[in-house]
Amino acid sequence: MNFIQSYDRNQMEMVSLESLMGQENQVRLIDAFVEKLELERVGFLINTIKDQGRPSYDSRMFLKIYFYG
After folding, report:
1. Is the pLDDT of residue 34 over 90?
2. What gap in Å lies between CA 28 and CA 69, rounded to an integer?
């Protein structure tokens, strides 16, 4: 009887995001550019909404996503 062979479910592959991006990828340029910026001088203000709970995300991360998009 014909049937579809399944994959081995015991496989695991560990990869990092760094290894998935090539050395010439534009993401690396955006990352380096935003890391060198002095966000306070450009007008970015970090506001803490509350003292309890999970801390807010880094403003640099949002800026990197904005530039990449």
Report:
1. yes
2. 14
